[in-house]
Amino acid sequence: MVSYPFVCPKCRQKLTLEGKSYLCSDGHCYDVAKSGYVNLVLVNNKHSADPGDNKEMIRARVLVMDAGYYDSLSDCIVDVLSDLPHSAVLDSGCGVGSVTGRIKDAFPDSLVLGSDISKNAAEAAAKKYKNVPFCVASGNDLPVADQSQDAVICAFAPVFEKEFLRVLRPGGIFIRVVPDVKHLFGLKSILYSTPRLNERDTDEPTGFEKIATRFVADDFTAKGEVVSSLIKMTPYYYHTKKEDLDRVFAMPSIVTNRAFEVRVYRKN
Ligand SMILES: C[S@@+](CC[C@H](N)C(=O)[O-])C[C@H]1O[C@@H](n2cnc3c(N)ncnc32)[C@H](O)[C@@H]1O
Ligand SMILES: [Zn+2]
C-alpha cells in the first residue's frame, strides 16, 4: 500500500494505491486507467460527458509538443522555478503534459503532478510521462490537500484563484502563462487577409503579489504535419473558412512566431 499525493474528491482523505485502484479510508475507490492516469472528477461535477479538449485537438497538441515547438516555454518555466520553492508542483490544465514532464525531468526529486479536465489529455500525458502522476480533475476542485503545493502552474488554461490559493503553501508560487498579443501572428497573417492582434489578457488574480514577468518570443518554421496540427490546436481551426484551411494545410512549411507572457505570483 503506497500513500499517494492525491486526496479523495468525495471526503478529502488521503488516497493510497492498492493494486490498480486508489482508495481512501472511507472505501471510495478510483480505478487507474490502463495508460496510468486516475479520474478524480465526481460525476455530478461534470458538465459534459467528455469535457475539455477533444481527441483531434489532443493528437495535434501531442505532435506539436513532441516536435519541440514549445520547449522554449517549458525551459522558461523551469528557469523561473529553479530559484523558487519547487518540492511540490501541480500543473493545472496540464494538457498532454509536456510542461509537466519537463518540470519533472528538471527536478526529479520534486513531487510533480498534472491535472486536466480532459480525459483524452490526461491519457496522452500519462502514456508519455510515466514518472508523473496525472489525474482528471477540474482546476476548481483539485484533488490535493490544503497548503500542500509549493507551486501551481497554469499555462493557457482556466485560472481558479481561490482553489489555487487553497492548495498553495503560505508564500507559494503561482505561474500563469498567457499568449502575448503577437502569438502566432505569422500564422494568422497566412490564414487571414486582415489578421488582428490577440486581445491582451489583463486579469490579475487576487490574493497574490506579482513578483516577475518573463516574455518568450521568437520566430519559427513549422513543417509538414505540424502546420495543420498547429492550427488544430487553436480556435482558428473552428473559425476559418474551409478553403483557407485547405490552402494552408497544403503548404509544406510556414514561418510563424511564438509569443508568451509568463507571469509569476507569490501567495500573499
Ligand atoms: C490550451 S490547453 C493548454 C495545455 C497545457 N497547459 C500546455 O501548455 O500545453 C488548455 C487545457 O486546459 C484544459 N482545461 C479546460 N478547462 C479546464 C478546467 N476547468 N480544469 C482543468 N483543465 C481545464 C483543457 O482540457 C486543455 O487541456
Ligand atoms: Zn473518500
Task: Please characterize this protein's 3D structure.
- 29% of the residues lie in helices and 31% in strands.
- It folds into two domains: 1-32, no CATH class; 33-267, 3-Layer(aba) Sandwich (Rossmann fold).
- By secondary structure, the chain is an alpha/beta fold.
- It is globular, with a radius of gyration of 19 Å.
- The strands form two sheets. It has an eight-stranded mixed sheet, with helices on both faces. The protein has a four-stranded antiparallel sheet with strand order 1-2-3-4, with no helix packed on it.
- The two termini are 37 Å apart.
- The chain is built from nine helices and twelve strands.
- Zinc ion binds at residues 8, 10-11, 13, 24, 26, 28.
List keywords for this structure.
binds zinc ion; 268 residues; alpha/beta; 9 helices; Rossmann fold; binds S-adenosylmethionine
Characterize this entry briefly.
With 268 residues, the protein is α/β, with parallel strands linked by helices.
What is the secondary structure topology, with strand pairs?
Elements lengths: L1 E6 L6 E5 L2 E3 L5 E3 L6 E2 L15 H12 L4 H12 L5 E5 L5 H9 L4 E6 L2 H10 L5 E3 L12 E7 L5 H7 E12 L5 H7 L16 E16 L1 H8 L3 H4 L2 H8 L3 E15 L1
Parallel strand pairs: 5-8, 6-7, 6-9, 7-8, 9-10
Antiparallel strand pairs: 1-2, 2-3, 3-4, 10-12, 11-12
Helix pairs in contact: 1-7, 2-3
